Amino acid sequence: MSRESYQDIKPTVWIGKRGITNVMIDEIRRQLKDRKIVKVRWLRNTEVDPEKVAVSTDAVLLEVRGRTLVLAERRRRSS
User: Fold this and answer.
1) Which of 12, 36, 73, 78 could form a disulfide with 32 if both were Cys (CB 3.0 to 4.6 A apart)?
2) What is the pTM of this model?
3) Number of domains in the chain
4) What CA–CA distance (Å, rounded) separates 31 from 78?
């Protein structure tokens, strides 16, 4: 998927005033398994560290724009 097409993806995870919770991390992981790419948005009054979200979900941070981030499933190396 090209970088321009990230703009066309609709956010499937919205982070509210509670911020990143364990339930939210689990939901992002589940969606990454199903979709391979997930777009996440958060409220203005919520502090979110996109790099921390990527590490917590074991994903690759593809893009951050404003209050939106795009994550991709990390590819597993086959031995």
Assistant:
1) 73
2) 0.86
3) 1
4) 22
Tell me the per-residue pLDDT of 53-73, one tens digit each, with 9 for 90 and over.
999 999 999 999 999 999 999
Would 79 be classed as within a structural domain? Answer: no
- End-to-end CA distance of the chain: give it in Å, rounded: 26
- What dihedral angle (degrees, nearest 10) is formed by the CA atoms of 21, 60, 2, 32? -50
CATH number at 45 reads: 3.30.110.60
| Mean pLDDT of the region 18-45 | 96
Residue 47 domain-assigned? yes
Give the model's pLDDT for residue 6: 85
